[in-house]
Amino acid sequence: MREAAHPGRIVAYPAQKLSTEATWTPERPSRDPERAARKSPQTSTREPVIQEPVASEAVDPEPEATRRAAGVTESSRANRGWWDRNADEYQIEHGTFLGDDRFVWCPEGLDETEAELLGPPEDLKGRDVLEIGAGAAQCSRWLTAQGARPVALDLSHRQLQHSLRIGGGFPLVCADAAALPFADGSFDLACSAYGALPFVADPRLVLREVRRVLRPGGRFVFSVTHPLRWAFPDEPGPEGLSVSASYFDRTPYVEQDDEGRAVYVEHHRTLGDRVRDVVTSGFRLVDLVEPEWPDWNTSEWGGWSPLRGHLIPGTAIFVCERD
Ligand SMILES: C[S@@+](CC[C@H](N)C(=O)[O-])C[C@H]1O[C@@H](n2cnc3c(N)ncnc32)[C@H](O)[C@@H]1O
User: Fold this and answer.
1) pLDDT one-digit tens code per residue, 175-206
2) Which of ligand 1's atoms lies nearest the C-alpha of 199?
3) What is the pLDDT of residues 261-287, one digit of tens each?
4) Quick one: three-class SS letters along 174-210?
5) How far apart are CA 274 and CA 280, in angstroms?
6) What CA–CA distances, in Å, run from 20 to 5, 23, 59, 159, 261?
7) Measured between alpha carbons, how far is 189 from 205 in angstroms, rounded to an integer?
8) pLDDT score at 39
9) What DSSP assignment string belongs to 220-284?
10) Ligand 1 center to residue 209 CA distance, Å?
11) Ligand 1: which atom is nearest the Cα of residue 134?
């Protein structure tokens, strides 16, 4: 809930001994950052959600990449650790492209200023907006400039420290998107640029939570990797243009340490799965945007590149509304 989160510090769910120093001491991890617990559903989330603390154990520098099952808790724990360890690298790599106070939906560079997926900018004034999987909360900074009142939420404390480093004055909340620590009907809008949805084992848990905290008529817009990409190698060059796996194989992508513990997880849903997830979670699907690669964008972002972007979709953006 808004009162619980004070600008200038990170409110952590669960309460953990976490530093809120906004220091910027990048340490480059040795691995590619691009490869890129929930408790039971709550009837009321007025109380802080308690999750198990993540052990800060050393991680095998060369985890094994595989496809295998990974559940809700394992995925959440793995990704929390991964994003904490790789937040610095992510911000070094992509901070300039994202801009400190722009709202960029995807590696294609689609900007909310032109897309207006949340509605006309003038209608954002005074709106309560939840940004999910906010990272360094660049989108929340843009929303603030439009006169909105954003709350930036992320699973990774280190990502939120980057938001503190940049500044902004809006609340930062460290929590899992599948257990939102806000009262019902707290927000007018919710948004997520590649935050949470690609990483959770059951996206319906997130969607239901977002629906719960939205007011009637509220809109949720989220971007994810386009499901079609899962049939191709995650490579920016020509090798990323030949089908190498079944689009219909929903087995998660997992990186695991030498004891078989997941240290990074991404989940695949087909386009039909995503539409069903949205609808069965109580939303109407208003639009499904597949941004085309613009000529001005010469940047690569992991497997997203001008070469592939001109040929196959890289991002799917779902515009959803609750009644
Ligand atoms: C690809 S980054 C996107 C960050 C930001 N939206 C941006 O565009 O730079 C994904 C973010 O989602 C966060 N995340 C992953 N799983 C999450 C979850 N279950 N709940 C909340 N945030 C999550 C990660 O910590 C990370 O900051």
Assistant:
1) 999 999 999 999 999 999 999 999 999 999 99
2) 16
3) 999 999 999 999 999 999 999 999 999
4) ECCCCCCCCCCCCEEEEEEECCCCCCCCCHHHHHHHH
5) 10
6) 14, 9, 23, 11, 28
7) 18
8) 27
9) EEEEEE-GGGGGS-S-SSGGGGS--S-TT--PPEEEE-TTS-EEEEE----HHHHHHHHHHTTEE
10) 16
11) 6
Which amino acid does the sequence have at 143?
Answer: L
* Tokens describing residue 263: 């240290």
Indicate the residue type of 31: R
CB 153 within 8 A of CB 182: no
Q: What is the pLDDT of residue 13?
A: 63
DSSP H/E element including 320: strand 315-322
Tokens 């007025």 identify what position? 46
What pLDDT is attached to residue 57?
A: 55
CA–centroid distance, residue 107 to ligand 1 (Å): 15
User: Does an H or E element contain 309, and which?
Assistant: helix 306-309
- Domains parsed from the chain with CATH numbers: 61-322 (3.40.50.150)
- Which of 104, 155, 160 most suits a substitution to test ligand 1, by most atoms within 8 Å of the C-beta? 155
305: tokens are: 């590149």
- What count of other Cβ atoms lies within 10 Å of the Cβ of residue 136? 26
